[in-house]
UniProtKB/TrEMBL annotation:
<protein>
    <recommendedName>
        <fullName>AP-3 complex subunit beta</fullName>
    </recommendedName>
</protein>
<dbReference type="Pfam" id="PF14796">
    <property type="entry name" value="AP3B1_C"/>
</dbReference>
<dbReference type="InterPro" id="IPR026740">
    <property type="entry name" value="AP3_beta"/>
</dbReference>
<feature type="compositionally biased region" description="Low complexity">
    <location>
        <begin position="703"/>
        <end position="719"/>
    </location>
</feature>
<dbReference type="GO" id="GO:0030665">
    <property type="term" value="C:clathrin-coated vesicle membrane"/>
</dbReference>
<feature type="domain" description="AP-3 complex subunit beta C-terminal">
    <location>
        <begin position="765"/>
        <end position="892"/>
    </location>
</feature>
<feature type="compositionally biased region" description="Polar residues">
    <location>
        <begin position="1"/>
        <end position="14"/>
    </location>
</feature>
<comment type="function">
    <text>Subunit of non-clathrin- and clathrin-associated adaptor protein complex 3 (AP-3) that plays a role in protein sorting in the late-Golgi/trans-Golgi network (TGN) and/or endosomes. The AP complexes mediate both the recruitment of clathrin to membranes and the recognition of sorting signals within the cytosolic tails of transmembrane cargo molecules. AP-3 appears to be involved in the sorting of a subset of transmembrane proteins targeted to lysosomes and lysosome-related organelles.</text>
</comment>
<dbReference type="Pfam" id="PF01602">
    <property type="entry name" value="Adaptin_N"/>
</dbReference>
<dbReference type="GO" id="GO:0016192">
    <property type="term" value="P:vesicle-mediated transport"/>
</dbReference>
<dbReference type="GO" id="GO:0005794">
    <property type="term" value="C:Golgi apparatus"/>
</dbReference>
<keyword id="KW-0813">Transport</keyword>
<dbReference type="Pfam" id="PF24080">
    <property type="entry name" value="AP3B1_C_2"/>
</dbReference>
<keyword id="KW-0653">Protein transport</keyword>
<dbReference type="GO" id="GO:0030123">
    <property type="term" value="C:AP-3 adaptor complex"/>
</dbReference>
<feature type="domain" description="Beta-adaptin appendage C-terminal subdomain">
    <location>
        <begin position="916"/>
        <end position="1026"/>
    </location>
</feature>
<dbReference type="InterPro" id="IPR056314">
    <property type="entry name" value="AP3B1/2_C"/>
</dbReference>
Length: 1028
């Protein structure tokens, strides 16, 4: 019924009808119009339901846009859930995205209906579109039903290994939701967090650290290996993630590093003085003390967070400020001052938080903000709470040098129309008088003048502050007490009257003539006074009875009789107690002896302190610091360890990639031993030598001698296999047609251009020799295999290299520059994670093209190793160059600019999924072991129909090798063919099985962690094998 009860505003006009998706139609009945305001519309959103159940995708899409618009406006669209959830399996990407947005909002409310679509969400987790995969996981984690916890756990594990960083980020968000639903999954979730912490994507870092803080903030051991990576990624992480990471690293640093605030140590860590100063000056000026040497990882954190002080996000700046406050040496904390002052230009909510933190910081280190004192002057447009905080800071910054300026500023604030602020200013003056003895008399005189102010609030606060100040020097200020007594009749504020009465009673011996007269006046008005004034009147009467009983004995008895029958029980109790204490009789004779010592005992002077003095027990920038109370979920900063823990726990073993091209380019001074005992530099054609030498000369010059020499034993063991591969390759080469390249034979007049202008090209024999040389180097990449494997991966030579090239730049578009590219399917020379790309550049114009190079690239984070700049390319000449591209296991195109001296051309390289693999050598036993680890959501399969003549080994291996760069795994069964490879970027294993069955059918099975790549590879293999 709640969905049908509409308010007046929901039915009152056409605008409202449009908002809820209701078509407005004119009514012919006057009665219907007359009673429309009080009728209930049972047809609400019917038009949207009809559109969502329509067969037209355009109507459904329009309906979903209107539904999402309702949600954005805060309208309740939950009744549309059944109609919306029917479209969750739509093939329209835009419609599916909107449906998932709706389901994320209402899945928790409509759990039963959402559970009916679980299978659809599971299928969507393998969708090629990363947004759909992420949205499906988000919806799945929003269904908070314990029965689907195993499904959520499996989906999170799968998403954590997704090729898209956006999906991995979503999996980190889902971890927190699953943990709040079932905390028994903590151990499994910690495993996923540990895996995601190793992710190198800046998009994932902030989310996984947030999951770490929610699930296992005490597992500091998970951060050790990732500490340096997080510090280095910090600048590129999104702003929300920066705040979370900085907060976590602050807690981590307090447990792993020693205090940089040691008083007995001399700090000589990277300071300019320590850098530029001579040894003689050091020994002459510095005392003999043990120097404090900061841990390099401690310094790394401070150095990498410092640039974030320039961030436009105030939360990031505040996080860095608190990090420096809690971790940096005292002489470096001041670098955050200017950034914090800059934040005071923001809106008042930001000002409030920043000023609170500055107030806490200024108490301990006044010198930080003293140069920026003018930034804390109060403006007339400031809110009261902002004024109070600025007043607090000005009071803390006051010293002997600037007190005159501060007091002049306070004189203006006292005249403010804001009474609360004016009262706070008077309290600030009292604090200044207490802290700086030189201005105590000046402040007292100023406060006495305020007693004549027309504003009762100002007068009352002045009396209270004067009372506190007089307690510090009572003997010197009897005149002020007399002056206050004269003004007593004109003061009406209860707290002020009570303060004057307390002063009269406390120092009644110094004003013996005035105090009894004040008591006489109070006896007349006792019954009409406030309770606090009555209590002080009783105290004054008791003290005068003890010191001047002749004049005040009757007055005291009269006041005690009035208090005995007062309506307030506190006053009645105080009156009975005072009577028994000061009036001796037979019962209380012993107690009355001590009355003088009880009532007239010397009282310690009150301490006028800042309200922010004790807030340093909470971490700056936290909610607990703001409210001055420990909030739920607050994690306290630990004390510095006395002895630094072992810093080697943060060391990460980094295996430096061996530069294989050092085997190919020997220098005359260091000859290479026959290129793995079988090949020599002379084996290459002269054209190949020139291309390799010009393209890699600069990289070889600075390389070490050790990387040029190969391992003798590994070379010996691989010699036979590489020779057998070379024989098969030679047979294939004889049947292939040479690459069609237009070349210009160099003549005598072309000689001078050989050092500057590139003319030679690759032929197919050169490409074969190049492939053959690389095929003898598998052990180099075996060390880079994933650590989770039970055996080392050995990259083998490609089973087939397609000769098909793709147009990169047409000669008409390139103004004479033509470019084609192909994938040689070889390990990249530059980085193991890159895919090698061969580019052929041809000058079809009638003039030389100069300075051909790679320009801007997209996306921004794309990792490309560019070829060396081609200084000059003569007309009709060609040159072949190599470049490396890290596609990050994605078929997303690599966009960049191919530039000449005069022009820039936008080009794009689109890889097929099969070109992103590297073939690996694997036994059948190892294949089965790895396949057993990659089941469930990591497995994709399909059945195809093949021609009967193709149901043999050769017709199956050839199409598979054509589609994907995979290695053949020896199989003991004739009807099962296995292929293995790994992704170039992440090294994830890819296993392909083709099982021949009866009736000319075959089952294709692909096992890999990269489920999206597996689906795309399965599609290509189905098409290739079906057409073979």
């Amino acid at each position: 019924m709640s969905t049908n009860n509409l308010s007046y505003n929901d039915q009152g006009g056409t605008d409202s009808a449009v908002e809820v998706g209701q078509e407005t139609t004119p009514t012919s009945s006057n009665a219907g119009a007359g009673f429309g305001l009080f009728s209930v519309d049972f047809k609400k959103n019917d038009d949207l339901k009809e559109m969502l159940e329509s067969n037209k995708e355009s109507l459904k899409l329009e309906a979903m846009k209107r539904v999402v618009g309702l949600i954005a406006k805060g309208k309740n669209a939950s009744e549309l859930f059944p109609a919306v959830v029917k479209n969750v399996a739509s093939k329209n990407i835009e419609l599916k995205k909107l449906v998932y947005v709706y389901l994320v909002r209402y899945a928790e409310e409509q759990q039963d209906l959402a559970l009916l679509s679980i299978s659809t969400f599971q299928r969507a987790l393998k969708d090629p579109n990363q947004l759909i995969r992420a949205s499906a996981l988000r919806v799945l984690s929003s269904i908070r039903v314990p029965i689907i916890v195993p499904i959520m756990m499996l989906a999170i594990k799968e998403a954590a290994s997704d090729m898209s960083p956006y999906v991995r980020k979503t999996s980190a968000h889902a971890i927190q939701k699953l943990y709040s639903l079932d905390q028994d999954q903590k151990d499994l979730l910690i495993e996923v967090i540990e895996k995601l912490l190793k992710d190198k994507s800046t998009l994932v870092a902030g989310s996984v650290v947030m999951a770490f803080e929610e699930v296992c903030p005490d597992r500091i051991d998970l951060i050790h290996k990732n500490y340096r990576k997080l510090c280095n990624l910090l600048v590129d992480v999104e702003e929300w993630g920066q705040v979370v990471i900085i907060s976590m690293l602050t807690r981590y640093a307090r447990t792993q590093f020693t205090s940089p605030w040691k008083e007995d140590g001399v700090f000589d860590e990277h300071s300019e003085r320590a850098f530029y100063e001579s040894d003689e000056e050091k020994t002459r000026n510095e005392p003999e003390a043990k120097p404090y040497m900061m841990d390099p990882d401690h310094r790394l954190l401070l150095r990498n967070t410092k640039p974030l002080l320039q961030s436009r996000n105030t939360a990031v700046v505040m996080s860095v400020a608190q990090l420096y406050w809690h971790l940096a040496p005292k002489n470096e904390v001041s670098i955050v001052t200017k950034s914090l002052v800059r934040l005071l230009r923001s809106h008042r909510e930001v000002q409030y938080i920043v000023l609170q933190n500055i107030a806490s910081m200024s108490i301990q280190r006044k010198g930080m903000f003293e140069p920026y004192m003018k930034s804390f002057y109060v403006r007339s447009t400031d809110a009261t709470h902002i004024k109070s905080l600025k007043l607090e800071i000005l009071t803390s910054l006051a010293n002997e040098a600037n007190i005159s300026t501060v007091l002049r500023e306070f004189q203006t604030y006292v005249k403010s129309q804001d009474k609360e602020f004016a009262a706070g200013t008077i309290q600030a003056i009292g604090r200044c008088a207490t802290n700086i003895s030189e201005v105590t008399d000046t402040c007292l005189n100023g406060l006495v003048l305020l007693l004549s102010n027309r504003d009762e609030t100002v007068v009352a606060e002045s009396v209270v502050v004067i009372r506190k100040l007089l307690q510090t020097q009572p003997t010197q200020h009897s005149d002020i007490i007399k002056h206050m007594a004269k003004l007593f009749d004109n003061i009406t504020v209860p707290m002020a009257r009570a303060s004057i009465l307390w002063l009269m009673g406390e120092y009644c011996e110094r004003v013996p003539k005035i105090a009894p007269d004040v008591l006489r006046k109070m006896a007349k008005s006792f019954t009409s006074e406030e309770d606090i004034v009555k209590l002080q009147t009783v105290n004054l009467a008791a003290k005068l009875y003890l010191t001047n009983s002749k004049q005040t004995k009757l007055l005291t008895q009269y006041i005690l009789n009035l208090g005995k029958y007062d309506q307030n029980y506190d006053i009645r109790d105080r009156t009975r107690f005072i009577r028994q204490l000061i009036v001796p009789n037979d019962k209380n004779g012993a107690l009355s002896k001590y009355a003088h010592r009880i009532l007239l005992a010397p009282k310690p002077a009150p301490l006028l302190e800042s309200a922010y003095k004790d807030r340093d027990r909470y971490q700056l920038g936290t909610l607990s610091h703001t409210i001055n109370t420990k909030a739920s979920g607050y994690l306290e900063l630990s004390d510095w360890p006395a002895v630094a823990p072992d810093q080697s726990v943060r060391n990460v073993e980094v295996i430096e990639p061996v530069k294989i091209h050092h085997f190919i380019f020997p220098s005359t001074a260091h000859p290479t031993p026959a290129l793995h005992q079988g090949w020599s530099w002379s084996t290459l054609s002269p054209k190949l030598q020139i291309n390799f030498a010009t393209d890699a000369e600069s990289r070889v010059e600075n390389s070490s001698q050790s990387s040029e020499e190969s391992d003798e034993s590994s070379s010996q063991s691989e010699k036979s296999s590489s020779e057998s591969e070379s024989d098969s390759e030679k047979k294939k080469r004889k049947t292939k047609t040479p690459l069609q390249k237009k070349t210009v034979k160099p003549t005598a007049k072309d000689g001078p251009y050989l050092s500057k202008c590139y003319q030679p090209t690759f032929c197919s024999s050169d490409l074969f020799i190049f492939s053959l040389i690389l095929s003898v180097c598998p052990p180099v990449y075996s060390a880079l295999s994933p650590l989770s494997l039970s055996f080392p991966l050995q990259v083998s030579g490609p089973a087939f290299v397609p000769e098909k090239s793709h147009d990169l730049l047409h000669r008409m578009t390139g103004k004479g520059l033509s470019a084609q590219y192909q994938f040689p399917r070889q390990p990249c020379l530059y980085q193991p994670t890159m895919v090698s790309v061969q580019i052929s550049l041809t000058n079809t114009s009638d003039h030389p093209l100069e300075q051909i190079h790679i320009g801007d690239r997209s996306p921004t984070g794309l990792n490309i190793h560019c070829f060396n700049t081609v200084e000059c390319l003569e007309p009709e000449a060609s040159v072949t160059v190599f470049m490396g591209i890290d596609f990050n296991d994605s078929t997303q195109a690599a966009n960049f600019q191919l530039c000449t001296k005069e022009d820039h051309f936008s080009v794009s390289i689109q890889p097929a999924v099969g070109d992103l693999f590297l073939p690996i050598t694997m036994t059948e036993l190892d294949f089965r072991k790895e396949q057993g680890k990659l089941l469930g959501m990591n497995e994709s399969s399909a059945t195809i129909t093949m021609a009967a003549e193709n149901m043999t080994s050769q017709p199956i291996s050839r199409p598979v090798a054509t589609v994907a760069n995979l290695g053949v795994v020896p199989s003991g069964q004739d009807d099962i063919h296995r292929f293995a490879g790994k992704t170039a970027s992440s090294g994830a294993v890819v296993l392909v099985t083709v099982e021949l069955r009866e009736s000319s059918t075959a089952l294709i099975t692909i096992n890999t962690e990269k489920s999206v790549m597996g689906s795309m590879l399965l599609r290509d293999l189905k098409q290739a094998l079906a057409q073979a």
